[in-house]
Amino acid sequence: MDETPLIRYKGVEIDQQALCVLHDVDFELHKGEFVYIIGKVGSGKSTLLKTIYGELDIAKGEATVLGYDMKKLKQKNISELRRKLGIVFQDFQLLIDRTVHDNLEFVLRATGWRQRQAIENRIAEVLERVGMENKGYKMPNELSGGEQQRIVIARAILNSPDIILADEPTGNLDVETGRNIVELLKEICNQGSAIIMTTHNLHLLSEYPGIVYRCEQHHLQRIGES
Ligand SMILES: Nc1ncnc2c1ncn2[C@@H]1O[C@H](COP(=O)(O)OP(=O)(O)OP(=O)(O)O)[C@@H](O)[C@H]1O
């Protein structure tokens, strides 16, 4: 592929508390790709994602995410970068004191949306995209785990991100609900956002093919396409 990658890591080392978690990481993500990161508990999957959204510094090497040099990031750049990323975790992280609609409105307003009609239209669009068009009035605790995860995905796509980072998005869900969530992420990928998803569920790899990397013994190894 000749276009500039969305993410390019070359010879990267990532440390946690001065201890090396991953070294010599070479990784590229291109538009439209669906990438799985697999590996044992504690092998560095979440740590890798944290560097992509600027939560953790790069210790060595070259790293670019959406044009940002990750070794020279300032606080202002981190906020800008995060607006271009959609982030989905396994433990949902919806604001529990407000409705689904208000969770989504909160993010839109925090990212600069001002016009009431545009806000309402966008909320309706993303809820429809994730199959939750009638659930805007619900409080998060009135939804099932799978429904909450759909709302988190709706929240992640509000600003049409170039990249979605999904850290164990099916981790708290039953098998069937987990499959539905990956299907949804696949659809979103087909519509233009590249996706990086960590998972322990290796069945998903054959059901929903993607590019697979494994974290193992402090390395990130590209295994191929599943
Ligand atoms: N905040 C932290 N401070 C110090 N060490 C950390 C911190 N977070 C993670 N680590 C260490 O970094 C290593 C990688 O952890 P990480 O959470 O990235 O693993 P993981 O592959 O995502 O695991 P899991 O499958 O359990 O989510 C582990 O040895 C862990 O103990």
* Shape call: globular
The biggest beta sheet reads: 6 strands, mixed
State the total count of DSSP E strands: 10
SSE string: EEEHEEHEHHHEHEHEE
Radius of gyration: 17 Å
Class based on secondary structure composition and strand pairing: alpha/beta
Low-confidence stretches: none
Number of helical stretches of at least 4 residues: 7
Strand content: 25-35%
Distance between the termini: 19 Å
Protein name: ATP-binding cassette domain-containing protein
GO molecular function: ATP binding
Pfam family, one: ABC_tran
Organism: Phocaeicola intestinalis
Structural description of this entry:
With 226 residues, the chain is α/β, with parallel strands linked by helices. The protein has a domain at 95-160. The protein has 7 helices and 10 strands. Strands 6-7-8-3-9-10 form a 6-stranded mixed β-sheet, sandwiched between helices. The protein has a 4-stranded antiparallel β-sheet with strand order 2-1-4-5, with helices on one face. Helix 4 packs across helix 5 and helix 5 runs parallel beside helix 6 (175-190). The two termini are 19 Å apart. The mean pLDDT is 93. The structure holds adenosine-5'-triphosphate (ATP). Adenosine-5'-triphosphate binds at residues 16-17, 21, 39, 41-47, 215.
Task: Describe the structure using short key phrases.
226 residues, alpha/beta, six-stranded mixed beta sheet, four-stranded antiparallel beta sheet, 7 helices, 34% helix, binds adenosine-5'-triphosphate, ATP-binding cassette domain-containing protein
